[in-house]
Recover the amino acids of this structure.
């Protein structure tokens, strides 16, 4: 393979020495690449509608051709092989995108059936957030986690009387906060 310096896409291949009598001229991959890259990219760009993606796909097709250049150089039309590989890559890309889109659509349908929080739940969450941390933890552990006063005291490392005090103060604060915030909302 001869190295070309300074060649650009769609420029004619550089002049090389003529092959000896009886030998077939084997074009270099660089010459082949520079002569056909832009054409393949333009065709793919028209097909998929994204020129930068078309460049990536054409580049991948030419990389695969480089790996097989010894064999492809003998083909009557090696650019046809590269074009077919590039189009196959584009079709594979479309299949992957379609599969991903269908998967996302199925996920969205599942999420759409999930109900959001009710106004009562929003009000309770907002009221709990305003409680001091100890009172909030005691109320949540007692009413939502169904722990007894003894279990909460053991978990928090405090006396049972302290937990009872936290629960009492937490309930009073919640009652005041929920009365203020639930005007116009159903019974809590």
């Amino acid at each position: 393979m001869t190295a070309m310096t300074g060649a650009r896409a769609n420029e004619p291949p550089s002049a090389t020495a003529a092959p000896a009598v009886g030998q077939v001229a084997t074009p270099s991959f660089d010459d082949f690449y520079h002569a056909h890259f832009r054409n393949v990219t333009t065709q793919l760009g028209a097909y998929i509608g994204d020129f930068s993606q078309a460049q990536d796909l054409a580049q991948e097709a030419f990389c695969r051709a480089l790996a097989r250049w010894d064999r492809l150089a003998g083909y009557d039309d090696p650019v046809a092989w590269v074009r077919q590989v590039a189009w196959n890559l584009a079709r594979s890309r479309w299949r992957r995108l379609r599969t991903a889109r269908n998967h996302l659509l199925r996920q969205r349908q599942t999420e759409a059936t999930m109900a959001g929080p009710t106004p009562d739940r929003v009000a309770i969450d907002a009221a709990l957030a305003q409680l001091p941390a100890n009172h909030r933890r005691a109320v949540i552990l007692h009413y939502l986690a169904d722990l007894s006063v003894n279990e909460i005291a053991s978990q928090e490392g405090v006396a049972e009387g302290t937990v009872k005090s936290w629960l009492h103060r937490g309930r009073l604060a919640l009652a005041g906060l929920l009365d203020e915030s639930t005007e116009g909302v159903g019974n809590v």
Summary: The helical segments are 29-48, 51-67, 69-72, 78-112, 119-130, 133-144, 149-156, 160-181. Confidence is low (pLDDT under 50) at residues 1-10, 12-18.
